[in-house]
Each structure stands twice: as C-alpha cells, then as structure tokens.
C-alpha cells in the first residue's frame, strides 16, 4: 500500500545526492583551430583528398587520390588504387614534391583527417621535405572546399560513366578528364584556365583579351555606356576560411590612451613650441 514518488521527485533527490552525472569516463571536449590559408602564387599551398569511384562489383570502390594547387586549381598529381593507405599517399607526394622542385619551407599541404592524412609515416615524409601541414576540423564538411568542388565537377561531368569495370578503364577516363580540367576556363579564375595561372600565362592571355575588347569597343562604342571595358584578371589572393572584415574589426586592438597628466603635458609642450 506504499505510494512511490514521481519520476521527477526521484531525479530531484538523485541530483541533490550528485548521482545523475555521467559515470563512465568521457573524453574531454576537443577544440580544433579553424584552418586558414591564403596564397598569392602557385606552389605555395596544395590541397588534396581521396574520393571513391564505384565499380560494377557490389560494395567495391576504386580510390582516386588528387592533389590540386590551391592558387590555380591545377592538378599537381593524381593516382587510382584499389586501396586507401598512407604508403600510396607517400609515393604520390614524394614523386610530386621532387618533380616540382619544392624547396623547404615553401609549401603548405592542406587535407582532412582521413587515415592516410594523419598517419605518422605521411607526416614524417612531409617533414623531411620541409612541408608544413594544415588539417580540416573533424566533422566539418567545408574546410577543404577546392578539392571537394573538383570532385563534384568530375562526377557531374557529362562523360562521367558512373561506374567502372576496373583500374584499367578508370585511369584513361580520369587522365582525359584531368587534361580537360586543367585547360578549361574556370569561373573562380575569371575564366582563365588552371594551366594559364599555374604556368604564368596570365599576362599574355590578358593582353589578347584586352586587345579584343578594345577592338570591339572602338567598333561599337554605343554598347559600352561606361567607357572602355577592362579585361578581368584572376584573384590575387586565394584563401581557405579567410578572416572576415567583421572579425578583423573585432580583434583589432584599440590604441592605448595616455593618462590625463601626460596628455596635458604634451598639449603644453605643443603650445610652447
């Protein structure tokens, strides 16, 4: 005939006795800095990732490794493999770094936190070449936007087959796509190609475009109410997670204000002078 207390009352008594907190050991909260990269020329930063290529065999995928130059979006190196591991990534990076003649301290490599990207052997390889590392935050999908965008462009390409038989037919298709990609006008580069920007052909292409615009402007001035058109150039700075102007304003320190006595003394000296 005894009446039990309500559930809320039981929890109130448990809270008073400190019996409600988690009793299992918990990993402390992790805090990862926001990756921020800004580059003004090719071979200052590379970004890379791995994407899965479906095959006609159920639950079997090929792995496509791609390194892009951050400033120009130029494909530095790529590789297709049945496996995803750090040893293959090491081979690709060792070849790419030697082929491009990267000097110690010149390059930063940005990647997410997949197993090959955080492997000790991979870090040791980059350290041996004097390459700095940058990592995306865990469970943040837009910290490596340029690699993700390139993969989307590839898989939305009209010629993308959707599935491959094996590496033997995947490699020729990817090779053809990469050649087309590096020579395709890119909207983010003011419609210059990644090859133009990477190989330093911007000035020559800009001169050709400006000459064509000038000829059209002289022939049809009525179509240009704002005057002579100017050909655009690629952006001078390319960034990952750039600091917004609002953040800069908030973090800028205000100049220290001198004590009233010092202000008065300075004013008096000024009057004497």
Class per helix and strand makeup = alpha/beta
Question: Outline, from the CA principal axes?
Answer: extended
Strand line-up in the sheet with most strands: 4-3-2-5-6
The rounded Rg comes to 28 Å
Give the SSE order as H and E letters. Answer: HEEEEHEHHEHHHHEHH
Structure characterization notes:
By secondary structure, the protein is of the alpha/beta class. It is 40% helix and 15% strand. The chain has helices spanning 7-16, 86-100, 115-118, 120-128, 145-155, 167-182, 194-198, 202-219, 245-251, 260-272, and strands at residues 37-39, 45-54, 61-69, 75-81, 108-111, 132-135, 238-240. A five-stranded mixed sheet has the order 4-3-2-5-6, sandwiched between helices. Strands 1-7 form a two-stranded antiparallel sheet. α2 runs parallel beside α4 (120-128).
Which structural traits does this protein have?
single chain, 273 residues, alpha/beta, two-stranded antiparallel sheet, 10 helices, 7 strands, 15% strand
What's the structural blueprint in terms of helices and strands?
Elements: H1 7-16, E1 37-39, E2 45-54, E3 61-69, E4 75-81, H2 86-100, E5 108-111, H3 115-118, H4 120-128, E6 132-135, H5 145-155, H6 167-182, H7 194-198, H8 202-219, E7 238-240, H9 245-251, H10 260-272
Parallel strand pairs: 2-5, 5-6
Antiparallel strand pairs: 1-7, 2-3, 3-4
Task: Write a short abstract of this structure.
The protein is α/β, with parallel strands linked by helices. The chain contains ten helices and seven strands. The strands form two sheets. It has a five-stranded mixed beta sheet, with helices on both faces.
């Amino acid at each position: 005939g005894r009446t039990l207390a309500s559930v809320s009352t039981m929890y109130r008594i448990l809270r008073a006795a400190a019996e409600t907190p988690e009793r299992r050991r918990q990993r402390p909260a992790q805090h990862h800095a926001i990756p921020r990269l800004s580059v003004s020329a090719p071979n200052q930063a590379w970004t890379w990732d791995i994407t899965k290529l479906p095959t006609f065999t159920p639950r079997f995928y090929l792995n496509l490794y791609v390194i892009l130059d951050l400033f120009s979006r130029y494909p530095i190196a790529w590789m297709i493999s049945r496996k995803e591991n750090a040893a293959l990534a090491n081979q690709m990076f060792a070849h790419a770094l030697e082929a491009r003649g990267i000097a110690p301290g010149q390059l930063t490599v940005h990647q997410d936190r997949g197993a090959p990207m955080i492997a000790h052997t991979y870090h040791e390889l980059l350290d041996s070449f004097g390459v700095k590392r940058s990592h995306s935050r865990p469970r943040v999908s837009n910290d490596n936007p340029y690699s993700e965008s390139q993969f989307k462009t590839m898989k939305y390409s009209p010629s993308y087959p959707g599935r491959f038989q094996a590496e033997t037919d995947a490699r020729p298709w990817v090779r053809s796509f990469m050649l087309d990609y590096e020579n395709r006008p890119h909207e983010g580069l003011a419609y210059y190609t990644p090859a133009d920007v990477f190989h330093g052909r911007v000035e020559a292409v800009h001169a050709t475009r400006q000459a064509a615009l000038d000829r059209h402007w002289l022939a049809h001035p009525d179509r240009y109410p704002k005057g002579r058109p100017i050909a655009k150039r690629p952006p001078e700075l390319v960034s990952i997670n750039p600091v917004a102007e609002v953040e800069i304003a908030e973090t800028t320190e205000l100049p220290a204000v001198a004590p009233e006595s010092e202000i008065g003394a300075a004013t008096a000296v000024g009057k004497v002078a």
